[in-house]
Each structure stands twice: as structure tokens, then as C-alpha cells.
Amino acid sequence: MAVEIHRRSRRSSGPLLIQNMAEIREELAVSILFGHKRGSFTGAYEDKIGLFQEADGGTLVLDEITETPLSVQATLLRAVERGRIRMVGDVKEIEVDVRVIATSNRDVEKAMREGRLRRDLYYRLSLMHIRIPPLRERVEDIPLLAKYFIEMANERYGFNILGMEEDVMEALKRGRWEGNVRELRNLMEMVAIRKREGWIRMEDLRVVLLGGMQQLLSGFNLREEIERLKRELIVMALRETKGNISKAAEMLGISRQGLAKMMRNLGIKKDGNDR
């Protein structure tokens, strides 16, 4: 939804950055959002702009806003209210023109009651409030979304998947989808990676949903299989974007920092090759 708002707005020619706030360590959050000056803290070897400056003229999506450290929320509130930010270690303020979209899959009212989200920040961000019902409450959207994600996989990875058989679609409609659209997207990509071409049948869906447990019982290493799938997706995204980590992260639906961390852990270089 946030991506579509950006694409249909007057800011569509500007940058679109997405940051999952749950992935930011508290001690680095202010630096990531607002940037820092060289020498402002241990490890700050050079000036680095933050997400607000990178998104100047465009849109900054703060996903999982309820996970933002409380120590950062007051600074974030001032930036949104005033349209001005201050880099860590700097004395001057910088004017930025950024539309901020905050998203959460948690109960925001509950987060405020529990003191995990400042009310003043919430009310400043919620000038326009869009509630998207859980996927299980809009079953009619599942076929359209599933087909769309399969088409995305075909286009991105060069697959030739023709579609899904009717019983597969019915099974998807019966799902609980605790992870909402993101869970459906991940499932469709996993099925697509395994299938690659032809029609998706129930046996293909079962391989993804149940195959891990069945193979685990016969000596299958689930962790290795998950890492293999991660590696394959990341490599495909990096090659598709010619090594552009920001674009690859957007394609994969994760933050740039999250992708960079996974690349380090998996030993993947920008060109998609192993070290």
C-alpha cells in the first residue's frame, strides 16, 4: 500500500526508501535516520547522510513503527513536525522535504496504552489513517494477490509458471495468514522457486508447507535449506539490479541494512558471487 501511494503521488519521481524499525539497534537508530558527522562516535570514520536526507523530495516508509525505540521517538517527532533534522555530532539543522508513511501490523492503540509508542508521535503521523483488514478477512483478494506474486516471480527470475490449479487456490483461501500479505508473498515465491515452470499443483504446495518437516525426519537440515533459499533470492535480486543493494532490498521487500547484513552473513558480494 505504501509503495502504491508513492507511485501514484506527485513524489513518484523522487526516492522511495523503506526502513523496518524492528531491525534497527537502538544505539544506531538516530544515525541511520538522520546521519552522522565524522568522529561523532566510535566507528564514525566519515560523514554519512541518513534516511531522511536520502529520501528528500520523496517518501520514507517506516515499517513496524511501534518497534521504534522510545529514546528515538521524540527526535523522530521533531523531525516530522519541523521538517528539519540534525546529524549526530553536528550543530546545524538541515531542512528536508520528506513524506513519512508509518506502518504497523500490531495493535497501535495497545502499543500506546503499554507505553511503547508515544501518543504525540502517533497523532502527528496519523493525519491520514488507512486500516487494511487482515488477509483472512478479505479472502476474495487472495487469488488476485497470489497470481500477482507468481507473475512477479516470472518477470524477475525468468520463470515460466502458467498459473495455479483450482484446488491450490482453494487451499490458499483456507489459510490463516497470520503474516498477512507478506506471508502469502513469501509462500508464492518459495513455490515459484521450486516449480519454475508449468502449473502449480497441490503437491508443489505441500512440498513447501510440509516438505521441510518430512525431509527433516530423513536427515534434512532445515537451517541449510532456508539459507539456500535466501542465498538464491538475494543473488537473483542483485544480478537483476546489477549490484544495486538499495534496489535489490526494495525488490525483496526488506531494508537496505537488513539485506547488507544477510549478504555479510551469507558471504555474498554485490555482484551476486561468493567471496
Can you give a write-up of this model?
This protein has 275 residues and is mainly alpha-helical. It folds into three domains: 2-125, P-loop containing nucleotide triphosphate hydrolases (Rossmann fold); 135-216, Helicase, Ruva Protein, domain 3 (Orthogonal Bundle), CATH 1.10.8; 222-266, Arc Repressor Mutant, subunit A (Orthogonal Bundle), CATH 1.10.10. Helix content is 50%, strand content 11%. It contains 13 helices and nine strands. The chain has a three-stranded parallel β-sheet with strand order 1-4-7. It has a two-stranded antiparallel ribbon with strand order 2-3. β5 (84-85) and β6 form a beta hairpin. α2 (26-34) runs parallel beside α4 (70-82) and α4 runs parallel beside α6. The model is unreliable at 212-220 (pLDDT under 50).
Helices and strands in order, then pairings?
Layout: H1 2-7, E1 16-20, H2 26-34, E2 35-36, E3 48-49, H3 51-54, E4 59-63, H4 70-82, E5 84-85, E6 94-95, E7 99-102, H5 108-113, H6 119-125, H7 142-157, E8 160-164, H8 166-173, H9 180-195, E9 197-200, H10 202-216, H11 222-240, H12 245-252, H13 256-266
Parallel strand pairs: 1-4, 4-7, 8-9
Antiparallel strand pairs: 2-3, 5-6
Helix pairs in contact: 2-4, 4-6, 7-9, 9-10, 11-12, 12-13
